[in-house]
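Need Phosphoenolpyruvate-protein phosphotransferase's 3D structure for a figure. Predict it.
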Amino acid sequence: ERADLEIYANRAAVTKDGFRVELAANIGTVEESLSLLEQGAEAVGLYRTEFLFMGQSQLPDEETQYQAYSAVAEAMRGRPVVIRTLDIGGDKELPYLELPKEMNPFLGYRAIRIGLDRKELLLTQLKAIARAGVHGTVKIMFPMISGLEEWREAKVIYAQACEQLRQEGKPFADTVELGIMIEVPSAALMADSFAKEVDFFSIGTNDLVQYTVAVDRMNEKVSHLYDYFHPAVIRLVKQVIDASVRNGKWTGMCGTMAGDPLAAPLLVGLGLHEWSMSASSLSKVKKVIVHVNRSECAALAERVLALDTAAEVRQALEAFHRQVE
Ligand code: PEP
Ligand code: MG
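Structure prediction for Phosphoenolpyruvate-protein phosphotransferase:
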């Protein structure tokens, strides 16, 4: 594995027939960003900012957030850094926000829903991110978007954040890409509409699977039903990528599926543009990508899309994977 890391870290992620993809890393802290370039990451595809908010007694102010986001932007030396706005709720608590106890926290007051309800919280974060854009290439991503209105509202708050920065005379980047996570089936199904308005998508398979098959991602009792190779999930992924391509936008994936070498040929075949995973998976996935042809992967994807069960999908992918070795 160490040898793989050395062989693949500096190699571009391009298939034998020239399809170039971007391999990015998921991070939760500034520290994790410091060695990413050495580890072969070309970008940060998901910066989970909630860790900046957790483990302390109050909201981090604009300055504190600005410092953290800038540090990551600088560590990546101009490579893209996709910063996700606060995704709290669900399984992640923030005692000082005094979130209500809920019957179904994953279906409740969570992520962008909190941001749009407590607008000053989102506004402060967006100001900090836009300011950090001066130190590199940052992109903003909104979590748990389920409909067009939420995205449009978030965009208005971003415009307000820029306007405030302008009035305060603080330097900020005004060419920041704005995207959404696709992790709710309604958003995947509306991808065509979203693709006309957003700059990019990033598919969060961890939640997308949970919501598509109605299986709590934390519940071991039903974990046998939780599978990103479920044909329904694969169809949604295809729909999202196709919608982005039709509209000249790009699609990434930052859920666990992106870091699975077994899924890699399928995702190449579907035309995924950006892949974001834990840094430790980068060389394993890249190893697969550089050994496949996109044309063969496209044929594989077509076969897989005709299958009815996750078990059949897995079998097809395993058979393909054996030939790659
Ligand atoms: C996802 O849902 O796939 C995702 C990347 O977000 P998180 O795991 O932080 O919910
Ligand atoms: Mg998620």
